Amino acid sequence: MKKVFFLLFLLIFSVSLFAQRLPRVRILATGGTIAGTGASADRAAYTAGELPVKDLIAAVPGLDKVAEITGEQVANVGSQDMTVAIWIKLNKRINEIFKNDEADGIVITHGTDTQEETAYFLSLTVRYDKPVVLTGAMRPATAISADGPKNLYDAVVLAASKEAQGKGVMLEFSESIFTGRDAVKINTTHVEAFNSPNDGPIGQVYDGQVVFYKQLLRKENKSTPFDITGMTSLPEVAVVYLYADAPATGINAAIAKNVKGLVTGGLGNGNLNKVNTTAVEAAVKRGISVVRASRVPSGRVVLHDETDDAKLGTIVSDDLLPQKARILLMLGLTQTMDKAQLQQYFFEY
Ligand code: SIN
Q1: CATH number for the domain running over 237-348
Q2: What are the residue ranges spanned by the domains of the chain?
Q3: Per-residue pLDDT, 7
Q4: What is the mean pLDDT of each successive set of 10 residues along the chain, which is 349 residues long?
Q5: Cα gap 16→7, rounded to integer Å
Q6: In what order do the strands lie in the sheet with 289-294?
Q7: Which H/E stretch holds residue 39?
Q8: Interior CA angle at 81 toward 346 and 177, to 5°?
Q9: Cβ < 6 Å from ligand 1: which residues?
Q10: Is 307 part of the annotated catalytic residue set?
Q11: 166: burial class by Cβ within 10 Å (0-12, 13-18, 19+)?
């Protein structure tokens, strides 16, 4: 009798082991080079955002062994045409998927040009801390040694991994893992196209294994106040770039357009030349929130340092580059126009 019970137990135990489900990963496709096709395999010219999500999944051998994969086409654009409207759609879909427990992790395939911006936007607005991993490719799907299938495989490994639980929005590219906040495209054509200029990657996906060796101390995801549920647009924020002898044309145009916010891609420690300092004074007087960022790829813009921010009425971006500072200012302006509070957002997020 004991033997029968033991055999029964063994049978139930092995059936339950086999029945253990793979993690569920939803792939949300938005286009980009990873879905691009070219006329020939040996030339770089191609059209981004051509292939549908089912073809992207089919091109990766072994993906179904890593996770239970489902796919959805959210958009199919080159990411130079990414819009706030698509960001809002993505955000809504991600929150729905997690709320309805449709997946354990999400992978977003995306063009590389604005991938870092989408990653930061989502890291500030998604209300769950389950893994959301952005990836893409530098070579189109039809190229020799296309990098898309490997990046997609690694992104799925990451999204499905227990190590990524609670880590929120990340970007995975060429085996490196970056936070959604700090990832920056650092090369126009090379396959190792991303880095985080201040801190480097936080981990690696290699040989199907995920390793983290750092963690972000900034607040992200569900701990931010930026719940955009129900919003269909965001306050307009312009970015103006500074250079030697730069005229105030850009800032004056932004003022004339009645933008709500302005980010300057300033020189060095976010510095402005004289004509642009006068233009910023005028913008602040008109009620425009102005953030001083820098065109320098790494380092901080320091409050009340070389520039008298108290006198000028400006906020600093801390270590956010202008394109990322714009996103935080757009979201910040959905909450407040109070300068001190906006500045606090830049120190916390
Ligand atoms: C794009 O951003 O859609 C084009 C470039 C790329 O994906 O690498």
Answers
A1: 3.40.50.40
A2: 21-223, 237-348
A3: 59
A4: 58 55 97 87 78 93 96 96 98 97 98 98 96 97 94 98 96 98 98 97 97 88 88 98 98 98 98 98 98 98 96 98 98 98 97
A5: 14
A6: 237-241, 261-266, 289-294, 315-316
A7: none
A8: 55
A9: 32-33, 48, 78-80, 111-113, 136, 138
A10: no
A11: exposed
